[in-house]
């Protein structure tokens, strides 16, 4: 495990602490979860770009449909 120090504006840090508290997790766990989501989105975008570059439009559109469905369920 790696330790990472970050600088945040006071207001951002305060809001992150409040969000973590409302979810019943530590700020560390919250940042870990948010980072995992951001990396998953980035991986998906890169995968989509690779599919688009190879001309597999139907497969790329199917991925977008699946992501849209997941977003709708998460809301």
UniProtKB/TrEMBL annotation:
Domain named Ribbon-helix-helix protein CopG: residues: 4-34
Classification via InterPro entries: CopG (IPR002145), Ribbon_hlx_hlx (IPR010985)
CDD domains linked to this entry: RHH_CopG_NikR-like
Domain of life: Bacteria
Record-given protein name: Ribbon-helix-helix protein, CopG family
Biological process according to GO: regulation of DNA-templated transcription
